[in-house]
Amino acid sequence: MTGVALLDQHLLSVLIALPMIGAGLLLFFPRGADGAIRTFTLLVTIAEFLLSLLVVARFDVATAGMQLVERAPWIPRYGISYIVGVDGISLWILMLTTFIMPITVLSTWSAVTKNVKEFMVFMLILETAMVGVFLATDLFLFYIFWELVLIPMYFLIGVWGGERRIYAAIKFFLYTFAGSVLMLVAIIALYFHHYAVTGVYTMDLMKLYELTIPVKLQLWLFAAFFLAFAFKVPMFPFHTWLPDAHVEAPTAGSVILAAVLLKMGTYGFLRFAMALFPVAAADWTPLIAVLAVVGILYGALVAMVQKDVKKLVAYSSVSHLGFVMLGLFALNLQGIEGAILQMVNHGISTGALFLIVGIIYERRHTRLISEFGGVAKVVPVFAVCFMIVTLSSIGVPGTNGFVGEFLILLGAFKVHKGFAVVAATGVIFAAVYMLWMFQRVMYGKITNEENLRLADMNGREVAYMLPLLLFILWIGVYPQPFLRRMDASVNAFVTRFEAKKQAALAGSPAGETMLVRYFDGQK
Amino acid sequence: MTPILFDKAALIQGLYSILPELVVIATAIAVLLADLVLPERGKKSLCHLAIAGTAVAILATLSLGPGRIEGFSGMIVHDGTGLFITLTILVTALLTLLMATGYSEWEGTQKGEFYALLLFSTAGMLFMAKGTDLMTVFLGLETMSIPIYCLVGFHRNRMTSLEGALKYFLLGAFASGFLLYGIALIYSVTGTTKIPAIAGMIGDLRLFGNPVFMVGVGLLLVGFAFKVSLVPFHMWTPDAYQGAPTLVTAFMAAGVKAAAFAALLRVTLLTFPALGPVMTNILWVLAFLTMTVGNLSALLQDNVKRMLAYSSIAHAGYILVGFVAGDVAGGQAALFYLLVYAFMNLGAFGVIMLLAHREDDGYDIGNFKGIGFRYPVLGGLLTLFLVSLAGIPPTAGFIGKFYLFSAAVKNGYVGLAVLGVLNSAVSIYYYLRPVVYMYMLPAQAEVPVPRPPRTAFSLALCISAAAVLVLGIMPGSVLAFAERSILSLLM
After folding, report:
1. Set of chain B residues whose Cβ sits within 8 Å of the Cβ of A191
2. How far apart are the C-alpha atoms of A45 and A65, rounded to whole Å?
3. CB–CB of B24/B119 below 8 Å?
4. Is residue A169 a contact partner of residue A157, using CB atoms and an 8 Å limit?
5. Torsion from C-alpha of A137, A140, A141, A143, nearest 10 degrees
6. Hey, are the CB atoms on A189 and B421 less than 8 Å from each other?
7. Cα–Cα–Cα angle for B363, B369, B372, nearest 5°?
8. Cβ separation of B373 and A174 shorter than 8 Å?
9. What value of ipTM does the predicted structure carry?
10. Do B432 and A154 touch (CB under 8 A)?
11. Residue A27 contacts by C-beta under 8 Å, 6 or more apart in sequence?
12. A123, A127, B16, B472: which sits with the fewest CB atoms below 10 Å from its CB?
């Protein structure tokens, strides 16, 4: 009994530690015992997922604040603590992370054959870091996990990636690192500002939320946070590392990159940049909305002309993440809930798309659209899976993508109609590039002899694809259980955002933020 | 005027205050004597003797405790800062000697004078770090430098080694001249060479703006800048670091830095606040130049040893950021960083010593191709040390940089902190390059087999790696120790 009670008290810490412990144990496996290494890693990630289900079970729908909070002093003299918690904003992103990991691990059975041990060690370290990012509510702890993500991903791309893997890995590392170092300075500045105002050194996010930060300082700090997160999302025009990283990464790397790593950016906006600096966030809204819409259209148009399926999926990510950003900066309940749901949806759909691309690449060692055609007849199971995933990525009603995009557009339409209208055309473009690609790959005459001998998906591949399809349809048909658990936290977020914005504006001399006053004047 | 009497109690207290130095010097002499009597095949035990002596010196330092002990009428003081830096320097020496067990064997530095010079130089560093009188600082500096000139040129048959030694010696001699002339000028105005007394006089005598005094302080700064290789006084560094036997390079980079920065810390923390923003601005510029030039030059290197030499320059720049901050937080961060740097720097040099077979071209980055998976422990260790040097969590290098830059932000130098973190971002590129070669490029037809490390060598690497991780994850108590050390200096 005590064991269960202990687990209950430290559930989130266990979630953070478990993969790392798994990675440590993996080191004792002999090199070359690939089967055992794979099975062990799979078991660790499945155990992690089952434990995370416990978080959903313990989650209280009515509570807006952090739940299952654990805190321990870390560097007490300097107000740095180990604080973790989960709320309606992070719950589903956490679940997405733990859900996608076993699937990804299973997908590497046949794809990763060299240095399997190191690969799995990096995968597990990556999982600890990602879970940590979404659970940390101490800024210092968050930053540690945030940077920790880079190293395993750098190796995954650089060692097990494609031809230009080294270029892609370094670009990925440098861009995202350069973006986030300025955030570190902003975190430090915020920390000392809190001290100057209250006389207390703290990195506790909940305490920092209570601070009313002068408008001018907000603008600077927001700018630094913006840069870090905009690179990660990635927003147009900070996206250039993404196609390279996606295309060169091994399938597992692409899936995690798309499903989880990009969400760190959007999650960061919501949890940190917007929540801490509401005036600045509101001030920047027009700019960010423009960039989001440009990203939606640009990503879609560039995706349309790609010859390589993987590159097409990569650019579609830029487009989809544009939607998420637009939803976040609608700054209302629908927009933000839609954005959070769309983060999960994009993780599932794009993750699935990368897996599909991986399956086909393993068989043919090419990803060029022109190499295929008429494949549907040869591999019917694959065709069905691909179809459902494609429809989900487009956002056809009945699939998860529809619910998310609809809510986002609803939220955006309430505040900036023009952006919403233009963004909606992005949905049409998505249909164009996805269906066109699907048609060229799957239908028509078989032009290439080799495609006649394609093997259909095997049991393992079906096993990891099925859960994804299940959630595509579940969220598409009945999203209520997902949305309901966000309500309290997102409502509280919107209320606090507005209150904090007014408080900061009231305490500041006029004219410091021209944009906000301009837009408020318009209302 | 009271006649100067022989004060037995004062003498004993003085000797007590330099107990670690005495142990180190005694060991050095013992090594020299033992060298005369030991047969050729017994020379290995010289190294063991040196290790034992250094370990005893560490114990002696710990036995002195954090309390303030003044010796020789205030010429030297053992205080918190002294304790912290003494431990840093002795740990550096200990790790160096542990690595010397293997290194000397391969490189033929299995000679009594090698260890004796190392120990004498260590003693000089300790004097320098504890000197509260500019004369003690100068004597310490010379005691430290002269053995190091010899050590850099220890490979008598290699041109690069001799070239490095000559360059270092000539420029070092100039630096000593500058330092001494600066001390003379300061003395001519204040009539004293005691640092606290000088600091006290600045306000009283209105020395700020006094040209002689200001030039004196400037020359003093130049002298120190040479020793810690701040840009633009860094010209000797790459050649001396590359030419020196690698073990000596590792020792210099960490040890000389710790000693010279400690002495500089005593001078700046006590006098610069009274001298106003001019001096701080000079340090600001030096810090910026040093970080940037060091990092940008390191980007272009294909020789890992030379790359680490430039990286060492960049790290001097980071540490100087703490001096710009100029308060307790800044000093504390600088002390902490010096300790962290000792571990990650010695660790990184230690691993590349094992991987490279020949001095000079053995350190070409091409030789590192594909060894990561072939030799996972060495590859993993080098990656850990490089990641720490780059300042990526969860390593000690990150915590160190975090406190340096947060001290700058705290004191309003946000611009310098921004430049600092951008520099870190630039440095990622060259720190990750060996990693790319080790893990991401296919191995050469013949992967060089690393030298089998001796137990002591492995121990040194393990200690460094453990320290990098522990100080990166649980830095609390060491940070608090560094803070107490700085507070004791300001009392």
Report:
1. 406
2. 28
3. yes
4. yes
5. 100
6. no
7. 105
8. no
9. 0.90
10. yes
11. A117, A121
12. B16
Contact between residue A19 and residue A152 where contact means Cβ atoms under 8 Å apart? no
Extract the tokens encoding B233. 């006084």
**Would you call A470 exposed, middle or buried from its count of C-beta atoms within 10 A (0-12, 13-18, 19+)?**
exposed
Length of chain B measured in residues: 491
Spatial contact of A315 and A350, defined as CB atoms under 8 Å apart: no
B436 close to A (CB below 8 A): yes
C-beta of residue B332 within 8 angstroms of C-beta of residue B483: yes
Chain B interface disruption, residue of A26, A29, A75, most B CBs within 10 A: A75
B394 upstream amide cis, omega within 30 of 0? yes
Per DSSP bridges, beta strands B69-71 and A80-86 are unpaired
Rg (CA), chain A: 22
DSSP assignment string, A200-211? ----BHHHHHT-
SS3 (DSSP) at B195: helix
Interchain CB distance below 8 Å, A192 and B406: yes
Taking only the tens place, the pLDDT of each residue in A254-304 is: 999 999 999 999 999 999 999 999 999 998 899 999 999 999 999 999 999
DSSP 8-class letter at A332: S
Per residue in A413-445, pLDDT (tens digit) is 998 888 899 999 888 999 999 999 999 998 888
How far off is chain B from A185, nearest CA to CA, in Å? 7
Contact B342, B375 (CB under 8 A): no
Q: How far is B470 from chain A (nearest CA, A)?
A: 13
Helix axis angle, B8-17 to B19-37, nearest 10°: 70
Take residue A314 and report the two structure tokens written for it.
Answer: 């990569």
Q: What single-letter DSSP state applies at residue A138? A: B
Question: Under an 8 A CB cutoff, do A150 and B392 touch?
Answer: yes
Beta bridge partners of A368: A308
The whole-angstrom separation of Cα B196 and Cα B77 is 12
> Helices A34-58 and A11-26, interaxial angle, to 10°?
180
Residue found under tokens 């932000």: B409
Tell me whether A201 touches chain B (CB under 8 Å): no
Q: Find the CB nearest A158 among B410, B436, B483.
A: B436
**Closest partner residue to A188 among B393, B405, B439, by Cβ?**
B405
Please report where in the chains the tokens 């500041």 appear, as a residue.
A508
Q: A239, A411, A251: which is closest to A342 by C-alpha? A: A411
Tokens 């819409």 sit at which residue?
Answer: A293
> What CA–CA distance (Å, rounded) separates A275 from A221?
12
- Chain B nearest CA to A84, separation (Å): 17
Q: With an 8 Å Cβ cutoff, is B428 touching chain A?
A: yes
* pLDDT tens digits, one per residue of B159-183: 888 999 999 999 999 999 999 999 9
Residue B396, chain A, CB below 8 Å: the answer is no
Quick: pLDDT tens for B102-139. Answer: 777 777 766 788 999 999 999 999 999 999 999 999 99
B189 touches chain A (CB under 8 A): no
B476·A150 Cβ contact <8 A: no
- Name every residue whose Cβ is closer than 8 Å to that of residue A350 and which is 6 or more positions away in sequence: A258, A259, A313, A316, A317, A320, A393
- How far is the C-alpha of A140 from the C-alpha of A427, rounded, in Å? 39
